[in-house]
Write a structure and sequence with these properties.
Elements lengths: L10 H12 L6 E5 L6 H13 L14 H7 L6 E4 L10 H11 L9 E5 L7 H13 L4 E7 L7 H4 L3 E4 L5 H10 L4 H10 L4 H9 L1 H17 L4 H11 L3 H22 L12 H10 L2 H17 L6 H10 L5
Parallel strand pairs: 1-4, 1-5, 2-3, 3-4
């Protein structure tokens, strides 16, 4: 189940990247796309270890024990530069890319290459994206850039065209369920988390190891159910409360997005792909009340809301608009 790089899934990507390392045919830039927590960063870091390992047992692999491997795995290697927005859902700024351009001109300090890991690059503002384009065009031979993003559509086409693109897919639910059992979850919990994470091993492990994440979900689901029966006055009061913490607002919208997706699938009769399997009764009620177009609109509104939170908009007004569209049960 676990491949030679000690990763769950994405074997085709591991095989391809291993060959690049073994034959020294690596590109100067790679773009790893896929849903958050699907394994983009883990794969990029494993690739960095394979590129820099000083005691590789087999070409294209890494030992995991040498100084290079340990430092890369801990993301504390002197030749590893990690660039990202200050927080998830934030904005990566042009100053960060300009500072990076100075560093990549220097020769590697300790390893064969300088590795630049640009996480969640869809969060880069336009100036930062354009600044990186110049770096991609003029990167020194001993520099390898590794970008992660949700999808290619969120990036400049000129950036995508200069990268080797690896599109990562979710892990099949039964396979992830088995993996969670191996990590200590009982059968029922493994099944629940495998569905809830939608095949994303990083999110599944977070839910398994962090009880507060499941508690947050439980609390927000109770509030969601209450909002469906609440008056406009109560919804506005909730919007005011929700808007006070943008990070919590974003996390709440992600949960709503997942629920509305399940509702839309239920309306369409595609119940095999539901992720919130413990909310079957609620999604069934909503599906019985909504047309497909209405469910899709609610899904789209939540999705757009996540993007709008990144900009300097009135968070309370955004919350009010979203909640006014909620149906009444």
């Amino acid at each position: 189940m676990i491949n030679s790089w000690n990763l769950l899934g994405h074997n085709w990507a591991v095989d391809m990247l291993s060959q690049h390392v073994a034959h020294e045919t690596q590109r100067h830039a790679y773009l790893f796309t896929g849903s958050p927590a699907v394994g983009r960063r883990s794969l990029a870091l494993a690739f960095a270890r394979a590129l820099t390992c000083s005691a590789s047992p087999v070409p294209g692999t890494f030992c995991g024990e040498c100084r290079e491997c340990r430092q890369m795995g801990a993301m504390q290697h002197p030749d590893l530069h990690i660039i990202q927005a200050e927080k998830e859902g934030g904005m990566l700024k042009v100053e960060q890319i300009r500072e990076l351009r100075k560093k990549v001109l220097l020769a590697p300090y300790q390893a064969k290459y300088r590795i630049v890991l640009l996480l969640r690059f869809q969060e880069a503002n336009p100036s930062a994206a354009n600044a990186l384009l110049k770096t991609l065009e003029e990167a020194p031979s001993k520099v390898i850039l590794l970008l992660t993003a949700n999808n290619t559509e969120q990036l400049l086409p000129t950036i995508v065209s200069r990268c080797e693109v690896l599109r990562l897919r979710p892990i099949p639910t039964p396979r992830l369920e088995t993996y969670l059992c191996e990590k200590g979850a009982d059968g029922e919990k493994a099944k629940f988390l495998a569905h809830l994470s939608a095949g994303r091993p990083g999110y599944a492990l977070r839910l398994l190891e962090d009880e507060s994440a499941l508690e947050f979900r439980r609390e927000k689901l109770e509030e969601f159910s209450g909002l469906l029966k609440a008056s406009r006055v109560k919804r506005f009061a909730y919007a005011e409360k929700l808007a006070k913490d943008k990070e919590e607002f974003r996390e709440t919208l992600l949960l709503w997005l997942s629920l509305w997706r399940d509702v839309m699938l239920s309306v369409a009769g595609d119940i095999d792909r539901l992720v919130n399997i413990d909310q079957h009764e609620l999604t069934e009620k909503l599906a019985g009340q909504l047309e497909l177009a209405e469910a899709k609109k609610l899904l789209t509104t939540a999705e757009k809301g996540i993007g709008q939170l990144k900009r300097n908009i009135n968070a309370r007004l955004l919350a009010e608009v979203i909640l006014l569209d909620f149906p009444h049960l």
